[in-house]
């Protein structure tokens, strides 16, 4: 009988560790029982993936402890430097407070990427994470079952190689932004998702991509000044147009803005003149979700009126529940955007209004290459919008109705 040849085990260590980097660390460690050849291969795998969900064990804290010991044991046996550490763990059905000492050990192993996603009643992120000199990408998503926010206030931040940062469900202290941009001179991409911000300024000369998604602001206004910013995305049910000021956005190419909230506690008459839309005047591609309540229409139109020219704007997409009511704003963009080629109008859901199309629009631009209108099978509304756009544009190359 011909003897079976184990070709996989004969591969070099570098290839075996690369293969094991695609499985979880638990599975990687389990290969140590295969043979003497495999006994210590897992110790040098460049990627660590810890995955755990205590719902699989009916919230048994004994299993939580075993997992915690496993994570710490892996790091204690680790000697080789790391490339990536991924920690996706759910302690939602337990009062267990997971250890974070392993993160101190991770920082010493000079990883390039750290991604931590945790659901737990408490999780203290150690300061060592914010002083890891090799780190290029950091993703921290720290959630609590009762929707509280975990405070992140490191004593200092020193991440000279960090290019990408994503923070989710965190409470960021007064000095966090200043520390961040001072201590991360290479930071190019920043995403803040469902965070509480205690700052009134986001200022960076090197940031290229900024996303603010459903964050809450503990100051009345937020000023964003990033001359190198290329892409901006803001979605919030808490902010409104009077709260955000965009300044010095000379490099902006793409922007996607959706402000759908209204803060009843703010005195909107006392807010400074808005500079949100007018701060987007250098954008090439612009997406706007016009979901503001009637109380903010005056501020919105005031901001539009402050605009000079969207000299670079080639593509404009507008989403609204009341496209006819918002057509003043659309017409303003048509008038102020001489390079505009593509206009897309999307009614988000079934429109609740069928106002008569305005007849008093008193200007016409020469040409638009393409107009796309999506009205969710509302042919009457689509026809009105085509008519209204037609009164603002002498020649339209192509009209698409979907």
Automatic annotation (TrEMBL):
InterPro entries: F-box-like_dom_sf, F-box_AtFBL13-like, F-box_dom, F-box_SCFL_complex_component, LRR_dom_sf, LRR_FXL15/At3g58940/PEG3-like. Pfam families: F-box, LRR_At5g56370. Gene3D superfamilies: 1.20.1280.50, Ribonuclease Inhibitor (3.80.10.10). Residues 5-41 form the F-box domain. It comes from the Eukaryota. Signal peptide: none annotated. This is F-box domain-containing protein. The lineage of its organism: Eukaryota, Viridiplantae, Streptophyta, Embryophyta, Tracheophyta.
